[in-house]
Structures are given as structure tokens and as C-alpha cells.
Write a structure and sequence with these properties.
Blueprint lengths: L7 E3 L5 E3 L8 E8 L2 E7 L4 E5 L2 E7 L3 E7 L3 E7 L4 E6 L5 E6 L2 E7 L5 E6 L7 E7 L1
Antiparallel strand pairs: 1-2, 2-7, 3-4, 4-5, 5-6, 6-9, 7-8, 8-13, 9-12, 10-11, 10-13
């Protein structure tokens, strides 16, 4: 997996890929159209953030590259790569339980807060993509 040099792109399978953790300075792309929605991405070495129709979707600290990001009413899945371990925040349904799998390993269940935010830590090694799956219980 590599960084997303165009900052965000649509994949043939209907998912999106975004982020470039190798950038020394913040870059952003607004009003990217995908599947009837408008996306905005901000990314560089310190942070990667994705918004859909003006609403928060994904954030990682430090920055990451995300491929095949797929989000529906019951689940979110994507592969993520970064230069070091990352704290990832996802916007999901408020006060809802989710089962989390990271790199094929069950990471347990977590409940979103009142605002629907779910925080998870992902151990990353440079050049190695990790699959993250979050499913509503």
C-alpha cells in the first residue's frame, strides 16, 4: 500500500482511499464528489481527517493513508498505513456497541460516546497495511 498522492480517490469497488502521511505540510482537497456525497480531506504527517457533507467521519493522529474505506449503517472497514502507531477516531451512532477487529485479531467491543465518537489505537509499521473492521453489535 502507498500514500494517496491525489489526497482522495474513488476505487472500482465503490470505496474511497485518502491520506498522505509523508507530507511535511498540511494539504487539503474539498468538494470531492463520490456516490452523491461531497468529501473533504486534510492530511499530512501529523493528522489525517475526512469529512462527508460537512460532517466528521475519520481522523488519525499522526497522519495515515487509508484505502478501501467503506462505511454503511452497520459497519466501517478500511486498511490503514502509517509511519507509527496511530489513534483513530470514527464518527458512528451515539451510545452504540461495536465489535472491533484490527489486523484479523479481535480487539473487543467498545461503546461510542454521546456524540457517536469511537477511539481506537492501531499499531502500525511503515509500509505495512492493517485491516480495521468495526461492526455494530
Amino acid at each position: 500500500m502507498a500514500v494517496i498522492s491525489e489526497l482522495i480517490r474513488s476505487e472500482a469497488d465503490g470505496t474511497i482511499s485518502f491520506g498522505d502521511y509523508t507530507l511535511p505540510e498540511k494539504k487539503k482537497l474539498e468538494d470531492y464528489k463520490h456516490d452523491g456525497d461531497l468529501y473533504k480531506v486534510k492530511t499530512f504527517s501529523d493528522i489525517t481527517k475526512l469529512e462527508r457533507n460537512g460532517m466528521f467521519v475519520y481522523e488519525s493522529v499522526p497522519g495515515t493513508a487509508v484505502e478501501n474505506f467503506n462505511c454503511n449503517a452497520d459497519a466501517v472497514s478500511f486498511t490503514v498505513e502509517g509511519k507509527e502507531d496511530a489513534m483513530i477516531t470514527l464518527e458512528l451512532e451515539p451510545e452504540t456497541d461495536y465489535a472491533i477487529t484490527v489486523g484479523g485479531t479481535n480487539a473487543g467491543q467498545m461503546k461510542t460516546n454521546l456524540g457517536g465518537k469511537l477511539n481506537l489505537s492501531v499499531e502500525l509499521d511503515p509500509g505495512v497495511a492493517v485491516l480495521v473492521e468495526v461492526k455494530k453489535v
